[in-house]
Each structure stands twice: as C-alpha cells, then as structure tokens.
Amino acid sequence: MFNQEYSMSRGKVIVTGGCGYIGSHTVVELIQNEFEVVVFDDLSNSKEFILDRIEEITSVKPLFEKVDLSNPIEADIVYKKHADAHSIINFAAFKAVGESVRKPILYYKNNLYTLINSIEAQKKYNIKNFIFSSSATVYGSPDILPITEKLQTKRAFSPYGNSKRIAEEILEDFAKAYSDFKTISLRYFNPIGAHESGLIGELPNGIPNNLLPYVTQCAAGVLKELQVFGDDYDTKDGTPIRDYIHVVDLAKAHVKAVERLVSGNMKDKYEVYNLGTGKGFTVLDIIKTFEKVTKRKINYKIAPRREGDVLALYASAEKAKNSLDWEAKLSLENMIETSWNWEKLYRGI
Ligand code: WQD
After folding, report:
1. Strand intervals (E) in the chain
2. pLDDT in tens, 90-115
3. What is the average pLDDT across 246-256?
4. Which residue's CA is minimally distant from atom 15 of ligand 1?
5. What is the pTM of this model?
6. What are the helix (H) ranges across 201-331?
C-alpha cells in the first residue's frame, strides 16, 4: 500500500550526541532536508529541552533514545531497535581539552568505547554509512598552511585530540576490512555561531574553554574578564590565528556527506574532509569584530600562552568544495551576531 509518510522521507539517520552543539544544528538541517532522525544521547553534556527547540524550528520532533553508548549492552539495544537506519553520524564524545589532560582514561574510554560499540553495531545490523566528527587538532602544529587533507596527521597534544586521531585510524581499518561499509571523517576547524532563531546554540558546562562562549559570557556579565592567551606569537597582532566556521555551515556539510555516502559515488570507502572557511582570524580580530557587531565592550587582558596552543590553523577547503559540493557561506559577523543572540535569549537579557 502507498505510504505517504514513508515516501516523503529520505530514510533514517541516527545522530549520536544529537542534543549537543554541532549535533543539534545537524539534526535541524537533516530534518529540513527530509531525513528521518533518531537522536542517541546520554545528556551528560547536553539538555533534553533542545529536542523541543528542534521541534520549534522544524515542526518535527526527532525520535530520542537516552543511552550511554560507551556501554556495549545499552548500545546494542538501541542500534538493534533502529537497524532500519541507513546512516550513523557520530558526535557523541567528551570535548574539553584541558579536562582530557587531567583525566585521560575517562576521555579514551568514553570517546573510543562509544565509537567501537557504534561501529560494531553498524556492522552487526548492516547500517551502511558512517560519519565521524573529527577535528583539525589531528594536524597538530602544521608547518604548511593552508592545511590540506594530504598533510600527515600528528600525535595531538591532548588525550581529547588524540582520541580523534585514534578514532580516525580505527575507522580506516574498519573500512579496509569490510568493503560493504562507507565512512567519512569530517575535520572541523573552530565551530562558532548559533542557529538564526536563537533557539539552539552552544551550552558550555561550567566555565567555557573555547574563545567565543567565553567572550559572549563576558559581554553578558556572567564572567568578569577574558584572558587573551599570549600576544607574542608571530602574527600581525601577536595573537594566534584560527579558522572560525559557522555551526550552521558545518551542519549543512553533514547533510552533503550523508548524500555522498548514500549516492554510491564515493571514490574510496574511507574519505576525510576539512570543514573550514579557508580564512584565518586572530583572537584580537574576534574581540574587535564582537565589539563592532554587538556594540559591547569586552574586558580583556593579555595573559601567558596556554599550553598546547599552536600559532596558526586554517583549512584548505578545496576538497570539500570539489567532492562534497559544499563551502562555508556565512560571515564572521554573522557567526558572532548569532552567538551573541543565542547568549542573550538564553539568559533573558
Ligand atoms: C581559540 C583561540 C586561544 C580562550 C579547541 C580544540 C579543538 C576544537 C575547538 C573542540 C586560541 C584563544 C581561547 C580564552 C583565549 N575542539 N583563547 N582566551 O584551542 O583553537 O581549539 O576547540 O571541541 O580541537 O583544541 O579553540 O576556542 O579554545 O581557542 O585567548 O579564554 O582563542 O589561545 O588562540 P582551539 P579555542
């Protein structure tokens, strides 16, 4: 019998960590591109109300399973239940760089057990496609800029970063061994920004580690002063350069990656892509642009360098443009404006 609801869907996608920052924006884009989404999340660093916000934006509430995927029994139950999915996007991971240095076992255990349990279930239940949320941190401190995917990966400074590199190697071996399955690793540069509705955004646990949430919390009066970690780097103003990318652009790249996996047009069973804008901005550029866009002053002082920080990281975005048909479109001003809008709405300012 003709089933209208089914015919309109482009099939089911499992999004692990779908209540988190990048995950929730990706769920929105997937729904708006007519995929059926099921979110697996243990809510350890995210909130369940995000699912209602996703519904407000898209008029569709994704299916939800509260599950700790680092536990193989729990993972097996939910993957078995949703074995009709064609793709898995794996965001579920701990991500605080400094904490990972202090608690390496926690990070390796959570991030790698979650990955291994997921690909084991993928194989068992024959879910063909896998997308992994990786990071530019796998390049370490690069000698050549912009960074292309051909650059040799290096041991990362932190267990967090190293868990991403090890995960990529596990996925490459998986792809080599099982020819029926296809995998894409997406290496994010520095995701910032929020959905234009202001309904979803980054929700850091405690004091933020990353620059933008720290800046917005300073502007909101939650934090007193921003420390700029070092002004003696060899850049135009002495502060490090990063490739900041809008989280909505990033989310759209995941839809393109699912489409590529489903299309059967992959050159290799395992592919990696940089997701960045290709442009670099310094820490002081970010502060100045924030002040210009929001008309708020940021109280900051120059502090010593932060351990593990590198001078400059920015992507060559060519491979994603050529093979994924994706490029970042949103400006730095838009990234900062939406981050601030989200912070204001969240705090009722
Ligand atoms: C950006 C710049 C700091 C905070 C990290 C991870 C990476 C990815 C994104 C996340 C740097 C400076 C920051 C502050 C500052 N993973 N800064 N004062 O270090 O490029 O990347 O986050 O899940 O894997 O390594 O991002 O936002 O921390 O820092 O001066 O209070 O801002 O020194 O130059 P980073 P960041």
Report:
1. 12-16, 36-41, 63-66, 87-90, 129-135, 182-188, 190-192, 226-229, 241-242, 244-246, 270-275, 281-282, 300-303
2. 999 999 999 999 999 999 999 999 99
3. 99
4. 228
5. 0.97
6. 211-219, 247-263, 283-294, 318-319
Instruction: State in Å: Cα 188 to ligand 1 middle.
Output: 13
Distance of CA 200 to the CA centre of its chain: 14
Structure-block tokens of residue 215: 């800046």
Residues with CB under 6 A from ligand 1: 95, 97, 135, 137, 161, 190, 209-211, 214, 226-229, 240, 242, 283, 306, 309
DSSP H helices in 129-158 = none
Nearest CA, atom 23, ligand 1: 95
Among protein residues, the one with the nearest Cα to ligand 1's atom 9 is: 190
Asked if 48 and 72 count as a contact pair (C-beta separation under 8 A), the reply is no
- pLDDT, position 3: 46
Residue 2 is predicted with a pLDDT of 46
H/E element holding 305? none
Mean pLDDT computed over 15-22: 98
Cα distances (angstroms) measured from residue 46 to each of 11, 43, 121, 200: 26, 5, 24, 11
Taking the CA atoms of 266, 268, 273 and 278 in sequence, report the sign of the dihedral they define: negative
What span, in angstroms and rounded, lies between the C-alpha atoms of 226 and 287?
10
**272 torsion bin: left (phi>0), alpha (psi -120 to 50), beta (else):** beta
User: What crossing angle do the helices spanning 332-347 and 211-219 adopt, rounded to 10°?
Assistant: 50
Say which of 79, 107, 160, 244 is annotated catalytic. Answer: 160
In a 13 Å sphere around the CA of 307, the CA atoms on its Cβ side amount to 6
Q: Give residue 31's pLDDT band: very low, low, confident or very high (50, 70, 90).
A: very high
Give pLDDT tens digits for 146-191: 999 999 999 888 999 999 999 999 999 999 999 999 999 999 999 9
Q: In whole angstroms, what is the distance from residue 214 CA to residue 55 CA?
A: 28
What is residue 7's predicted lDDT score, i.e. its pLDDT?
52
